[in-house]
């Protein structure tokens, strides 16, 4: 098997990242994302490092996996949590260490930055396979649940179809 290369994503990767996000939404939640909104969101994220950053894994010149890191300031701990989101590994590359490599890469980058105090991610409640993977990397369950107010009053929900 060819070696895996990890790198920061760039604008040329937008179409692949958007496609992987589309697949992720369908596979994990059985929802179809609006293509225009999704592509605009990916390109906005790639253009603005304050929003976060994507990391991709490549094999033989093709992207086989991705993550998005966004940021949460913790006043309780006086530091940043990096939220790992948009985790996707192409189906033919799964169970081959792609996510493990991405995670270890992000863990190393976070550890090198003294302002970063931890890594977090959220996972679909019934996705036991993903939970097992995350736990095997040393992540632990928290006591927090996730609630949301979306869309905000007076705003339309972005087109998502179940």
Question: Your description of this structure?
Answer:
Helix 1 crosses helix 2 (35-47). A five-stranded mixed sheet has the order 1-3-4-5-6. Strands 2-7 form a two-stranded antiparallel ribbon. With 162 residues, it is an alpha+beta fold. The chain has one domain: Aminopeptidase, CATH 3.40.630. It has four helices and seven strands, in the order E-H-E-H-E-E-E-H-E-H-E. The mean pLDDT is 94.
Short descriptors:
two-stranded antiparallel ribbon; Aminopeptidase; about 35% helix; 7 strands; alpha+beta; about 160 residues; single chain; 4 helices; five-stranded mixed sheet
C-alpha termini separation: 37 Å
CATH architecture assignment name = 3-Layer(aba) Sandwich
Q: Profile the largest sheet.
A: 5 strands, mixed
Identify low-pLDDT runs.
none
As laid out across the biggest beta sheet, the strand order is: 1-3-4-5-6
Count of beta strands? 7
Instruction: Assign the CATH class.
Output: Alpha Beta
Assign an overall shape.
globular
Round the mean pLDDT to the nearest integer and report it.
94
Structural class: alpha+beta
Counted by DSSP, the helix tally is 4
Strand percentage, roughly? 25-35%
Helix share bin: 25-40%
Helix and strand element order: EHEHEEEHEHE
How many discrete structural domains? 1
Rg measurement, Å = 16 Å
CATH superfamily: Gcn5-related N-acetyltransferase (GNAT)
Determine the CATH topology. Answer: Aminopeptidase
């Amino acid at each position: 098997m060819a070696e895996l290369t990890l790198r920061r994503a760039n604008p040329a990767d937008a179409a692949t990242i958007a496609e992987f996000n589309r697949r992720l939404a369908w596979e994990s939640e059985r929802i179809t994302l609006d293509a225009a909104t999704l592509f605009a969101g990916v390109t906005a994220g790639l253009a603005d490092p304050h929003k976060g950053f994507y990391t991709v894994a490549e094999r033989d010149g093709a992207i086989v996996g991705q993550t998005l890191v966004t940021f949460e300031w913790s006043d309780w701990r006086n530091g940043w949590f990096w939220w790992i989101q948009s985790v996707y590994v192409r189906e033919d590359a799964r169970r081959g260490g792609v996510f493990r490599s991405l995670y270890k890469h992000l863990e190393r980058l976070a550890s090198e930055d003294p302002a970063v105090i931890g890594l977090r991610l959220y996972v679909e409640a019934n996705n036991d396979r993903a939970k097992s993977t995350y736990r095997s990397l040393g992540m632990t369950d928290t006591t927090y649940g996730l609630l949301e107010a979306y869309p905000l009053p007076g705003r339309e929900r972005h087109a998502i179809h179940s």
